[in-house]
């Protein structure tokens, strides 16, 4: 861990936890109940596994998380301690600030399709479906270094939700096609789903009821960004191709 700021200031002590590279994103995943090492890494794929090991160890030493044996007896999980839970509103407010003030800072290279579908996984409402649902996403305009994720699958059933970069072998119920930038804008609440459905984003499938209920089972109807003000030019002028 870095040496710290050598100040007793409470802001300095908090910054020693939160101002370390990758740590807020690791906490974001833990706060979304992604508690295994592999699930945290899937949510933050650009961090090396070695650095993730180091950051998790630091959070343990700081009393922010603790390791617990998994219920099935294999390996362990990372759980927030009371001190870690107390950081939840801080991390949430970081997200709220970003929705408003960093909107124009989103670059084309930020548009990671795997992270987007991983976000849909975290939002998925399993109680909203009564059978296995397989959705295939076909993205256009993906950054050059992420083209292997131009097609992804989201598999939902009442027992769990998963993201697949390879065809899972199940019949596909719903197909989504469109530009990754439009999907991200919907995900963040900058564009209403009903405004882009059938236009910028094409949805195909035989189960019309399932398609109609898309906003329910991946929670597109409850997005905080939709209710936030639009603030222009706070970070910088919009980059060509940004959202």
From TrEMBL:
GO terms for molecular function: DNA binding. The keyword DNA-binding applies. InterPro entries: HTH_HxlR, WH-like_DNA-bd_sf, WH_DNA-bd_sf. It holds the Pfam family HxlR. Keywords: DNA-binding, Transcription, Transcription regulation. Residues 9-106 form the HTH hxlR-type domain. It comes from the Bacteria. This is Transcriptional regulator.
